[in-house]
Amino acid sequence: MSTGLIARTTATLLLFGLAGCTAYAQSASPAKPVLQPAPHAIQVLQIESSEIKLPPAFQMAIYEHSLDEIKKTALFQEIYRDGDRRASGATDLVTLKTDVTGFKKGSAMARQVTTVAGKTSIKVHIEVVKGDGTVLAQKDVEGKVRFFGENMRATFDLSKAIAKALKENFKKPAAAGKS
Amino acid sequence: MLTNRCAPARFLRLCATRIALTLAAASLLSLGALAQQQPQPPKPVPKRVKSVLGFPDIKKNENCDVDVSGSSLKLKGSTASAEVQTSSIEDVLTGDDSARLIGGFVGTLTSFGPYGSGRFLSLFRKKLDTLTIQYRDSDGGLHGGILSMNPGEAIALKKVLVAAGAKTSVPIDESAKPAGDQKP
Lengths: 179, 184
What we know:
The complex is a heterodimer.
Chain A: H1 2-28, E1 36-37, E2 41-44, H2 56-73, E3 78-80, E4 93-104, H3 108-114, E5 120-130, E6 135-145, H4 153-169, E7 170-171
Parallel strand pairs in A: 1-7, 2-3, 2-4
Antiparallel strand pairs in A: 4-5, 5-6
Helix pairs in contact in A: 2-4
Chain B: H1 2-37, E1 48-53, E2 62-69, E3 72-76, E4 81-85, E5 89-100, H2 104-110, H3 117-122, E6 125-136, E7 142-149, H4 153-163, H5 172-175
Antiparallel strand pairs in B: 1-2, 1-7, 2-3, 3-4, 5-6, 6-7
């Protein structure tokens, strides 16, 4: 009698465990987007800020930090700056266009004194475009400094977010393809 | 009897001293206010600036010597130096910023001070001028360099750069607003 009870309890627990595992597996692995192989070269264009008035120092800081962060991802074998003449001869070249869509200049002093106020945020729309105009990837990205740091740190945060967005869309080229 | 005669005299002397001190303090304050109202003379071209970013070989946030001689802008850091031809500079723009008076590693440590002392120290900030320089390298690639310096010095440096052949999209007279006159 007691043996039967133990067997039933064990079977029930196993069933629950199996069901739980299945549910966890379904929730933990959502359908991942298929990553495209990263193009050979990328040209980072100057940050566009036509509608939103972004200070020139912020504009240039985003541009320079983005170049650094994209280099760190090692997705692209060649990275060109805006206007670089060598880009015209590059094969499989894409361009990264960045357009500022929102900017809120907070206060570093307010952040350091109150912790909760004075957030600085910059919102941009990025597009990775092929030579024929085909958009390979696009995303709205935000960079912010909420607790510590000066306002300019938002540009660094934004650049990291841009690099992350690229990593979410492209995968590194195969090892055999490396030169 | 002697003490009775001296007491009013001492009292008068004390009062006179106090009045003199008060008047001196008031005149000093009024002189300070007057000095603030008068337009400040233009600042000289800085000799030392902080390279925030964008100049090859020079580390970020490194203090360096700056020199505009002939047709080039030269920056010399502790280990490396950079030279930008003024003819390759497409735009020079001034801006303003502020930074903690006690910055760097010590500034970070003070934020953990007891009884809110770190927050209190955060109230003390210094104003800064920024100079953004857009230039092209030999391949035509765009670079953006940012320099920070004391208030009023960015305009002086911009004038020298423009005189040496750099271009600017904002005329100097319009951009001539020292950071010290603006709200932090």
